[in-house]
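ugh ok fine here u go
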Amino acid sequence: MDIMTHILRAPDNQDERDAYHAIRRRVLFEARRKFGVYDENRPDEFKTGHHPLILIYDGVPIGVIRVDIDDRVAWFRRVAVREDLQRSGHGRILIKLAEDFARDQGCDMVRSNVAVDAVIFYERCGYSHDHSGVAEGGSVPMLKQLP
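structure:
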């Protein structure tokens, strides 16, 4: 899969904002049997330094991430690829482009609280367990130094 066919950027119209929330709601909540709890107006989405981003492939939104910048650390939040496109390389490209975004923002480290079922994926992307981190809701703290 060619990374040049993917674009990671902020949603720039209502359809893309709707797709951003629909992917998050479906993959990160409903697929985990958490119905009726997703809040697209959660205040964290609008804080300064928080960047909701959408992965576009061939003109179609297929993945999402929110990158929160805290000094030189980027926090990857709510990473998801549409279910019908998982396990086909899009997730790795999403992470790579998000790392590039973080680097462009002056970050030299990425941290994330990762769902248990995604730990192996993150390890394959070069992340390691963050033993100094605090797990949130059963997640696994992970980190990666950016070159």
